Amino acid sequence: xxxxxxxxxxxxxxxxxxxxxxxxxxxxxxxxxxxxxxxxxxxxxxxxxxxxxxxxxxxxxxxxxxxxxxxxxxxx
Length: 76
Prior knowledge:
By secondary structure, this protein is mainly α. It has helices spanning 21-34, 41-47, 52-75. The chain has one domain (21-75).
């Protein structure tokens, strides 16, 4: 006989994200670029669920990180 077990309740809302805003933004940029989408401040705010203020504050640093990760992945 097959039995099922319930999964324990997720505490995602209680656990802070281990990634910084810049790392999450860089990952969103890399995902958008890989999917063939143009990465703009507006599209990043919508796709990555970031505020305009976050994009303005961290966008340049996140773009640099996304580029460096992309180059590293190709070179490896």
